[in-house]
Amino acid sequence: MVIRLGAHPESPFPPVETALLEPDGLLAWGGDLRAPRLLNAYRKGIFPWYSQEDPILWWSPSRRCVLDPASVYVSRRLERLLKQGRFKVTADTAFAEVVAGCALPRKDQPTTWITEEMAAAYQALHQLGYAHSVEVWQDGSLAGGIYGVDIGRMFFGESMFSRARDASKVALVSLCRQLEAWDYILLDCQVSNPHLQRQGAREVSREKFCAALRLNEAFEERTGSWQGLLGRS
User: Fold this and answer.
1) Three-state SS at 160
2) pLDDT of 11 higher than 90
3) H/E run at residue 159
4) Nearest Cα to Cα of residue 147 among 162, 158, 161
5) What pTM, to 2 d.p., does this model score?
6) CA distance 62 to 78
7) Mean pLDDT to the nearest integer, 118-129
8) How far apart are CA 42 and CA 85, in angstroms?
9) CA distances from 4 to 57, 111, 112, 113, 213 (A)
10) Is the pLDDT at 232 greater than 70, yes or no?
11) In order of start, what are the domains of the chain with their CATH numbers?
């Protein structure tokens, strides 16, 4: 049975073990996207995902796609590209623009799950210092990027986009190398796809993912801008 969440932003989520098997991971519905509820969800391995015409749906799938920052795959061609300096990489300089880029419909997805409500919610988390973006620039224009939520030593990736070949890969690799330098445990990719698998992502059980979340509780939650921090340990 899928539980309807209470109106208070700190009302509890049901245990993730009670999520449906079909559709896999559907746990609850309703509530809102205010910061306290969103942060509580991520700390428990839950994320919102829904279409414009649906109520807010909350998920904790039985299999979780994760990426060890140190294990991100970098081909020799991509490594050469990174060294050439064709792209400039920054962090937290164009958060809203990255979210907007991720929200644009794609060839295999005529609609988007990043609604105006979702974009506003992550912008609020960004202003609180929890949500961050990595931007990739080419000739002064935004060529790609990735954004997500930072809690402790886990980064919960939400979406990425590319307007130029390899731009999203550059964003992902740049993010992973910074997370590795900061000794992060995992980059959460939520749901697997072939692109993420080619980049080194793997699936783990919900139980293993929740074990990583419990380990992450021991680390301080840092907030603040990432501007100027890429490349620093």
Assistant:
1) strand
2) no
3) strand 154-162
4) 158
5) 0.94
6) 33
7) 97
8) 35
9) 9, 25, 24, 20, 24
10) no
11) 3-61 (3.30.70.3550), 65-216 (3.40.630.70)
